[in-house]
Amino acid sequence: MRRSTALPKPPAGQPLGQTHAWLTLRTLFPYLWRYRLRVLAALGCLIGAKVANVGVPMIFKEMIDGLSVPQQTLALPILLLALYGILRFSTSLFTELREILFARVTQRAVRQASLEVFRHLHALSLRFHLDRQTGGVSRDIERGSRSIASLISYTLYSILPTLVEIGLVLAILFVKYDVGYVVITLTSLVVYVVFTIKVSNWRIDIRRAVNENDSAANTRAVDSLLNYETVKYFNNEAWEARRYDEQLLKWEEAATRSQTTLAYLNLGQAAIIALGVTAMMWRAASGVVDGQMTIGDLVLVNAFLIQLYIPLNFLGIVYREIRQALTDIERMFNLLNENQEIADAPDARDLPEGPLQVNFDAVDFAYEANRQILKNLSFAIPPGKTVAVVGHSGAGKSTLARLLYRFYDATGGAIRINGHDLRKLRQTSLRAAIGIVPQDTVLFNDTIFYNINYGRPAATREEVMAAARAAQLHDFIESLPLKYDTTVGERGLKLSGGEKQRVAIARALLKNPPILIFDEATSALDSTTERAIQSQLEQAAVGRTTLIIAHRLSTVMNADEILVMSDGHIIERGTHPALLAAGGHYATMWMLQQQEDELLSP
Predict the structure, then answer these.
(1) Is there a single domain that holds both residue 328 and residue 369?
(2) What is the structure's pLDDT at 11?
(3) Looking at per-residue confidence, does 432 or 306 come out higher?
(4) Which residue, among 52, 54, 92, has the nearest Cα to 308 in the 3D structure?
(5) Tell me, what CATH number does 378's domain have?
(6) How many CA atoms lie within 13 A of 12 on its CB side?
């Protein structure tokens, strides 16, 4: 079966649109203009290097003409030879000075652009990060930051020097000889540049398809490796390899077409240069034969042609690389254009210090318009009190924590702390006041100490160890060969579920916030450890405004108020004894869980 040669389509949602070159350059410009004095000094060195470079063949011409006269004394050639050496050295001197001046500008621009994208990604909403593909995003940032350095390098070290040299050479040819040389040179240059731009622009979609499919292949690889255990559980190594190869095949087709069209472009450029050089040398040779030009003039024209066409030949490669760099930078800067769904209001203020009360006032919320999660929900958590929320899966319990942490904004009603709408508070101030133990604990691929210390990086080692003791984790850590310096692996996979959850509890306790959220904080623990930690959690909650989200009712018995949720509503509320006495939904759940515990007990 004959394989199709059609250009591979990019992944869905990533069209091969036009590169917005000027918009990309305008976005990049401020990163460079911060160092305008260095930029201007580097440009001065660039011009100095090219003036010296153009002066070299002119001195060489005078030396040849001087030596061609038999009675000429050696004084003039020796002086010219010294000047020749000085100009040669000056070319290298100014070039290296330009490099010294501009090196920090390039690296600082790469660093600041990458940092801004990194910060923006962290500022984007949870919705964006749930939808994103980690492998593709990381590859876009990697290629984009690398391409900033490439673009600056090609522009300053190739494009501008070549343009300056072309201008100087054309001026010398016009003044010293006749307009015919200028016409031939300009015609060759224009034909070369137009041909290069036209063909390179035609190739840009091919190059972008290579990048799109490269990112897609990387995304599949990263996603598969992050889910290594799941792949093994279902014996799907061959399936994953086949899916990865399908994307690599699309990349191979695009990359092959890119390489083939590049060869045609190089052939066309070589033909144009050959015709231009031949025409110039024919005219110069005719001038020598007619006695209108000296041998030195012929050497000068030939030297100018070499100096022009060698960088011009490289200019075609540079243009293609610049187009590719612009494409890569555009993809990275497009991340900056991602809408920051949850942003601080212009008049946002910090959360006031002191005891904090949380109020959910008639809150409505939906992740999607046609799927309502919370419906006219109202309750309060008084300062220093503990409120627990229980209910079956899908009732909307964990959504409360996400809204309180302002990962999303309520679509109706308001959430207030001490009367202040969350949307009027600075997110950094709000989140600094909240400690959370999530249901699904994901750890950094670093040491246990680092992961606990992450709750408050300024904490001392003694404070970290105290938090570990409070989470019933210290003895386990001390039993490990490397103790607190033990690495936990990717996403904490070297630890059991219970051990990871205890690290999360220790991290939250170390943060020592006025508001605590326990979202199924003991769900991965066995009954013995759960009972041991439960008393520590209750002790940690003393004096703090605490929200407990739980499925196991034994963990919320001592809460000041228990809310029973179903289908986004509160259907029952009260203390543990009052709810049991009411004989409603909570009492039924309690009875069923007690029966399960009895069946599981030895």
Answers:
(1) no
(2) 36
(3) 432
(4) 54
(5) 3.40.50.300
(6) 0
Tell me: pLDDT of 400 over 50.
Answer: yes
Angle (deg, nearest 10), helices 527-541 and 461-470: 120
Judgement on whether residues 298 and 372 belong to the same structural domain of the protein: no
Average pLDDT, the chain: 78
284 and 412 co-located in one domain: no
- Same structural domain, 297 and 412: no
Two structure tokens written together for 211: 């990048």
- The CATH number covering residue 115 comes to 1.20.1560.10
Give the per-residue pLDDT at 6. Answer: 37
The backbone region for 495, taken as left when phi is positive above 0, alpha when psi lies in -120 to 50, beta otherwise, is beta
Q: Are residues 395 and 315 in the same domain?
A: no
Say yes or no to pLDDT of 86 above 70: yes
pLDDT classification of 10: cutoffs 50, 70, 90 = very low
CB atoms within 10 A of CB 526: 10
Helix (H) or strand (E) holding 570: strand 569-574
Q: Can you give the residue range of the structural domain that contains 488? A: 358-600
Sheet arrangement for strand 561-566 = 434-437, 515-519, 545-550, 386-391, 561-566, 569-574
Residues in the chain: 602
Asked if 208 contacts 10 with a C-beta cutoff of 8 angstroms, the reply is yes
Residue 31 shares a structural domain with residue 90? yes
Give the whole-angstrom CA distance, residue 405 versus residue 436.
Answer: 9
Is 8 a domain residue?
A: no
Q: Are residues 121 and 198 in the same domain?
A: yes
Question: Is 72 in a helix, a strand, or coil?
Answer: coil
In a domain, 479, yes or no: yes
Give the whole-angstrom CA distance, residue 19 versus residue 545: 52
CB 382 within 8 A of CB 419: no
Cβ proximity of 282 and 184 under 8 Å: no
Per the structure, the count of domains in the chain is 2
Task: Answer whether residue 325 is part of any domain.
Answer: yes
Q: Convert 552-590 to b/e letters by CB count within 10 Å (16 or more is b).
A: bbbbbeebebbbbbeebebebbbebeebbeeeebbeebb
**Distance between CA atoms of residues 278 and 286, nearest Å:** 12
Determine phi and psi for 494, rounding to 5 degrees.
-80, -10
Output Rg (C-alpha) for the chain, integer angstroms.
35
The Cα–Cα gap between 527 and 549 comes to 18
Query: Residue with structure tokens 């041991």?
Result: 532
350 in Cβ contact with 425 (< 8 Å): yes
The two three-digit tokens of residue 367, written as one number: 């992740």
Helix (H, G, I), strand (E, B) or coil at 341: coil
With beta carbons less than 8 A apart as the criterion, state whether 326 and 151 touch.
yes
